[in-house]
Amino acid sequence: MNPGITALAYVIFWIAGVCESVLISQWPRYISSISSGRAEIHCYQNDTDYDYLYWYRQLGGREIQLIVYLVAGTARFETDFTSGFEAVQRKKQWSLTISSVQEKDEAVYLCAASYTVQQQTQEL
């Protein structure tokens, strides 16, 4: 079985207690990769300059997990994701790479952005 990765863009921002939606593009929509292959997912914010950029993952039927957030080009990975993942920012684009895709990586991957750091994934 080849692990598949689904990439979806779902973005909600909380600013001063008001919810604002903006356009974030995420691609590719689907990735099929043979085991040990490399997978890359990208996001782009075209009309905004949010400082905090996020990558999340949701394994089938489970809660959303924060993988990493980037601020000023520096990636800050959560404990379970310090190995096998790479995150980079190039201006308004940020990317997530899984260096060696395994069956356990089959999930929905989500990107998000905000002006300030988000403490809870429940806001998504």
Automatic annotation (TrEMBL):
The keyword Signal applies. It comes from the Eukaryota. SUPFAM superfamilies: Immunoglobulin. It holds the Pfam family V-set. GO terms for cellular component: plasma membrane. GO terms for biological process: cell surface receptor signaling pathway; immune system process. Residues 3-124 form the Ig-like domain. Keywords: Immunity, Signal. Signal peptide: none annotated. This is Ig-like domain-containing protein.
